[in-house]
Every structure is written in C-alpha cells, then in structure tokens.
Amino acid sequence: MKVASQKQVSFKWFGMAVQFSIIILSACSERSFRYFDVVWDDPGKSGKFDRISGTNFSVIVANESIVEVSFLRTWQTSMKGSCVPINIDQRYIMRRGESGFYSYVIFDRPQGLPAVEVYQIRNVYKLAVNRFSYMAISDTRQRNMPSLTDRKQGRTLAYPEAVLLTNPNDSKFKGEVDDKYQYSSEIKDDRVHGWITQDHFAPEGFWIITPSNEFRSAGPVKQDLTCHVGPTVLSMYTSTHYGGKDVTMTFKEGETHKKVFGPIFVYLNSASLKEQFRTLWPDAVRQSSNEVEKWPYDFVGSKDFIPPNQRGTVAGLLQIQDGGGKAQPASNASVGLALPGKAGSWQKECKGYQFWNQTDKNGNFLIKNIVPGDYNLYAWVPGFIGDYMYTTKITIKPGGNINLGSLVYNPPRNGPTLWEIGIPDRSAAEFYIPDPNPELINRLYSNNGTDKFRQYGLWERYTELYPKQDLVYTVGVSNYHKDWFYAQVTRNVNKTYVPTTWQIKFPLQNIIMGGNYTLQVALASATYSRVEVRFNDPNVKLPHFSTGPIGDDNAIARHGIHGLYRLYTIVVGSNHLVKGNNTIYLTRSKATSFFEGVMYDYIRLESPPTKAT
Ligand SMILES: *[C@@H]1O[C@H](CO)[C@@H](O)[C@H](O)[C@H]1NC(C)=O
Ligand SMILES: *[C@@H]1O[C@H](CO)[C@@H](O)[C@H](O)[C@H]1NC(C)=O
Ligand SMILES: *[C@@H]1O[C@H](CO)[C@@H](O)[C@H](O)[C@H]1NC(C)=O
Ligand SMILES: *[C@@H]1O[C@H](CO)[C@@H](O)[C@H](O)[C@H]1NC(C)=O
Ligand SMILES: *[C@@H]1O[C@H](CO)[C@@H](O)[C@H](O)[C@H]1NC(C)=O
Ligand SMILES: *[C@@H]1O[C@H](CO)[C@@H](O)[C@H](O)[C@H]1NC(C)=O
Prior knowledge:
EC number: 4.2.2.23
Oligomer: single chain
Family: Belongs to the polysaccharide lyase 4 family.
Structural class: mainly beta
InterPro entries: Carb-bd-like_fold, Gal_mutarotase_sf_dom, Galactose-bd-like_sf, GH-type_carb-bd, Polysacch_Lyase_4, RG-lyase_II, RG-lyase_III, Rhamnogal_lyase
Shape: globular
CATH class of the largest domain: Mainly Beta
Bound molecules: 2-acetamido-2-deoxy-beta-D-glucopyranose
Helix content: under 10%
Organism: Cajanus cajan (Pigeon pea)
Enzyme class: lyase
Largest sheet: 9 strands, antiparallel
C-alpha cells in the first residue's frame, strides 16, 4: 500500500527538520489542522482551555533513518492564570519507510509550580471537510457520516452535543441523531480509529493507532471519545468523560511530576482504486497489530520514555474463592498495576502509568512492559463482585521479572445467595435497554445489537414505560433482561422531574431470627444521585441505608452503559424482614433533570452466615 499525498516527499528528504515539521503538522491535507490542548484550572474552579504551542523548537535527531523534533513550552510566572503550570514538550518522529508519524508529549512539573487540576488532555486532528466521509472505530462501528454542515443545519437536542439532522445534504441522514458521545469506546477496545476519503479515484485513510494504553488514565474500561463529525480524529490522553471530577489529575503547590503520553502512531494509508476503500480499515487494523508488536518502541528520543530493556514483568495465578469451598481459577479476569492505592482506586487514578492484561482460562496472567516504579496489583473478575488488591507494594526494577505465584481473591460475601438480579460485570448491559424513539435514532445502531445503549434519549423512555407507577421487580417471576430498566432515572410528570422508587418483591420461606442478612448492591454508574434503601416500609423517614450524594460520571447523557463502579454491602437484621412476602424499596431521592440517575450492575440478597461461610 502506498503512502497518501505529498508526505512521502519528507521521507526522501530528511535533512531539514524545520520544513519536515511543517509538513507533518499540516498532516493529511492542506485544508486540515491539528491542535493539542489541556483543560485545567486552579483547584475547585470550572476549567479553561489552553491550546499549547511550543515556544522553543529543537531537533532531537535527524539522520537518514529518523527525524525527531521537539516543540517545548516552559512555564513562566508571567503565564500564571492563563497557561497550565506544566512544562509541555510535544515531540514528533518520522522514520524511513513508515507511512505516518509518531507523536508523544512529555509533561514535566519541576519544583516551585502552583497547584493545578487537569481535567482533559487531548490531541485533535481536524481533517479536510467534504473529503473524509467514512468513519471507522471498530469492525462493526463504521459507516458514511453526515457532515459538519448537516449538523449546523440540524436541531440541537437536550444534550447540546446531540443534534437531530433535519436538513442534511444527503437525505438518507434525515431524521437521524448525531452525537460525538455515540462514538465513544472503552480504552481497551480502542487500538485504532479514523476516517477514509471516498471522493477520489484513490481513497486515503487517516488513523490514530494507540499501541499501548499505559499512559491513559483510569484503567482499561475508562471510556472516551474517538472520532466524530467534523471530520475529527481524537487522541484522548485523559478526561473526566464517564468518570466525572473524580477522574482528575490534581497537583498540589510545588508538587513535582513527570509523565510521557504516547507515542501514538498517526498512520496514513491509501488504495489505488475507488472501490478498494474497504481495504483501508483492515489494513489499519493490521498496522495497529504491527505497532503493538513493536511496543515499547526503541527509537524514542526522550530519556523519559523507558525503553524495552529497562521494563519489567509481573506474572502470577489468580484464583477465586467465593464463600468457602475450593479456590477456582479466575478466568478472564482483568489484572493490572497502577500507582499504590486502595482496592479499586485505579478507576480514578490519572497521574501514573497503568499496565493491564487478562488472565487465561486457568487464571494465569502475565503483564509485560512495566515502567520501573512502585505499584499495587489490582484485579476484578467477571461474575464476581468487588475489587481485588494485592496489598504488598510491588516495586518494579529495570529489567526485573516478578512472579507472585498463586493469589486468592475472596470477594465480599456474608452468606449464601437467596436471590440475585443481573450479572456482576460492572455494566448494565444485561438489563432492559429500550428501543429508541423512532424519531431520534442513529442508524449505525439500529440493528438492535450490543451497541443499542448508544442510542439517544433512552432515558425518556422510562416515563413512557412507567407513566404512573415505578418499576416493580418480583423475584422468581420477573426477568431482569426485560423487567429491569437499564438506569434508574427520574420520571417526567407534567414536565417536572420527580424521584423514583423501585421495588424488589421477594418471598422468604422462613426467617433466621437474630441473624443478619446482607444486601449487596453494585452500581455501574451514578450521576448526581443518592440511593436510599428501605426494607418493607417505604414511609420510614430514615432510610435503612443511604449512599449519600454520589457521582457525576454522566454516563446516561453520554450514552455509556457504565461509569464508575461502586459496591455497597448493606447489613440488615432479621427484624426488618418477614416470613412471606418482603419488599425492598430503592429510592433515587433527588430529581432536577432527566440525565440524573444510577445504573445498577448487580443486586444480591444473602442469608445470615452459615458455618461454611
Ligand atoms: C451534497 O450531496 C451531493 C450528492 O449527494 C454531493 O455531490 C455533494 O458533494 C454534497 N455536498 C456537500 C457540501 O456535502
Ligand atoms: C498479555 O498476556 C498474554 C498471554 O499471557 C501475553 O501473550 C501478552 O504478551 C500479554 N501482554 C502484555 C502487554 O502484557
Ligand atoms: C429488539 O430486540 C428485542 C429483544 O430481542 C425485541 O423485543 C425488540 O422488539 C427488538 N426491537 C427492534 C426495533 O427490532
Ligand atoms: C398533569 O396535568 C394534567 C393536565 O393539566 C392533569 O390532569 C394531571 O392530573 C396532571 N398529573 C399529575 C400527576 O400531576
Ligand atoms: C448484626 O449486625 C449488627 C450491626 O452490625 C451487630 O451489632 C450484630 O452483632 C450482628 N448480629 C449477628 C448475629 O451477627
Ligand atoms: C406473595 O407474592 C406472590 C407473588 O407476587 C403472590 O402470588 C402471593 O399471593 C403473595 N402472598 C401473600 C401472602 O401476600
């Protein structure tokens, strides 16, 4: 496959790095541009944009096989209030024979800088309007897209990023919703995304390949933007999307820090015939596998990027023991290293590097390419609640290999299961996801498949399904696939949003008097919510349990099926339950808009401990 447009000129012509850098910055075409920006503020404020330009250009290396250039901005006191107090070095690398360029950024906070909060860091590529028309973010999520003009001529919906295309140039998009958040991905699923031109006899592709997620914050299931109408291609380093303010890089006054983001690879491909445009996506996927194979890169100029021979590995065997009995292999578990913290702290951690992998079916894991430093090892296992953490700190030495041997996770459990709702997998995907309003659909997801939750406006369907009375779930009768709405949202009563109370009805054959029962409630998401739990008396003023105010992950408005994970273990004495029919009342107590709500991951009632547990 040939290199697109005039960039190959620069491969043959390596001496003059300044011109070279101009060519790569103009990226794919003369009508496109890129920028790098940071959303930041003084602690406690709301966030301002800083579009970073280098003030100091230098050539790191320039020879026949590689050119690396640097655009550095060093923070000065005179920038206080207008620029994020971090020294930022943007680097670009081109290598002979590679169709594209590498891009990485070094953040450095030397001594003496003011306190700051960083909410978002991203690289934005705006491609030539009217040329790139086909967007691809996965094997199944790809298609021709509406244009920016179509968006501008449309009608903005309740969430301003969402637009109903009322007057698109191409009538086949009429009546569709476009919203950039419909194209988010979990970080672990986002190896490559980009756009393809179809206008020419020779189609071209522009792709962001992320060979490692080590520098991206908040772990492998953090979701973020990929591509959207513009045509826009993003490389998100960190953001509060689907996590909220908890997922913020925070620095105290004088706190020092250094981190390398990337490199990522900006890959360009082309085909010689118009009809061959469909080959560009599989070619980009192939290229992303090549980049993963090459990781960690051995050609990066900064000494702050740790080369392959200085990195370490951690191996081990993870087993699970749920409520006594023999330990079993924890298969398909996610196991990772992140900065030392508490069990589950990785999902909010933004400052360090994270290294994740999956266990095999026997529970074995191997995590390679770890940057030397101090970590904790964290894990969670599909099918089981809670978070595992290996409490001894792990120190990775350059080139060091650690085998932790056999580790056993005892997930939270106080007694045998009486009943359960859902699957403990940190997502609400198994619950009832309604069909979208036919007037507000995105046809990319109209096949009723696993991406259905990405449709716009599903939250409004709750009021239509439950106009007078909230959801009632009867254990043993109801089916959570059909009878448990994916999110407990507010209800719209005559244009006023009211709190909702869901009921779980269940029988108890007999009561173990004096014993403690346990309700395990795992949430997959929360936005401006408070969940109160009452047993058998909906009117008792003081709830038996309250989560307190939780969450701003905004996963409902942004069409996610989860945000941050939370687990509540609620102990209830037998005096609150009765022999026969019982009801648990789950009240989402606050209501000011339709984007507020929680998603449940899983609910389980356990009887009092027996000897075995
Ligand atoms: C509008 O659509 C026509 C044909 O469908 C196409 O030739 C033209 O380039 C489009 N214009 C814009 C601005 O997208
Ligand atoms: C993940 O585990 C697999 C299987 O053990 C291994 O082949 C692969 O190299 C590991 N990847 C990383 C990045 O550690
Ligand atoms: C989607 O699938 C569900 C369950 O299979 C079905 O009840 C529903 O009617 C389908 N909706 C559409 C629009 O096909
Ligand atoms: C909603 O408004 C209608 C018409 O004004 C009224 O009849 C009805 O009682 C109201 N419903 C509620 C729950 O307030
Ligand atoms: C039940 O829980 C309460 C409160 O946590 C505790 O004081 C009590 O000892 C427990 N009873 C039993 C039988 O474990
Ligand atoms: C208990 O609930 C079941 C199922 O909803 C119902 O059929 C039964 O009549 C109830 N029993 C009593 C004693 O209310």
